[in-house]
Amino acid sequence: MDKENGQLSQWHSLVSDAEQLAGIQLEPDLESYLVFTLMRYLSRPEMTQRVLALDYLQAALSQGREQQHQLRDVGDQCLLYCGLFPRRAERRRVRVSYYVDLGRSAYRHLGDSRDPLSTLYTELALTFVMAMDVLQAIRNMRQEQRLDPLNNLELWQDTGSALAQQSLKQVTDATPQADPDSRRTRGKGRLH
């Protein structure tokens, strides 16, 4: 029990440090959810071998509690992919925002369900990018793990990621600007 409490405390400390680094303050319930998600999944290396779109489709075909569990798993795994393993998207020839959209959709469906945590899932759908930024800040604590400027630009354009924008500002004098001609309502931009 003490070992588990010690691990929990360490994860909370890591997430708090990452929030500070990213300049983000998650609500306490979201912070706790993120900590428990990290604890649950990081001991499961098979997670990185999943085809999340197929898992999402399988969840859509399921019903009841099984659907809720599958959607939660898809949302959680997308969040971890985006935050801790964003280069996997590149290897699979998709943008990180693909996983952002898939994860948000899974959480949004859970938010619309009768799940007792539906309010939390709605909040996760709305703050997905902030939670991703906190996870990427954990990743960035090791300098060699940072995303390159092009991937940061794409991530900022597609999602409005504040951490990606901050990373861009560190490597260029150009300032990302919102693109008023964008089809997406948030986040599209270019450097000026």
Automatic annotation (TrEMBL):
Q: Region Disordered: start and end of each range? A: 166-192
Regions of biased composition (Polar residues) lie at: 166-175
**Name of the protein in its database record:** Uncharacterized protein
Its taxonomic placement starts with: Bacteria, Pseudomonadati, Pseudomonadota, Gammaproteobacteria, Thiohalomonadales
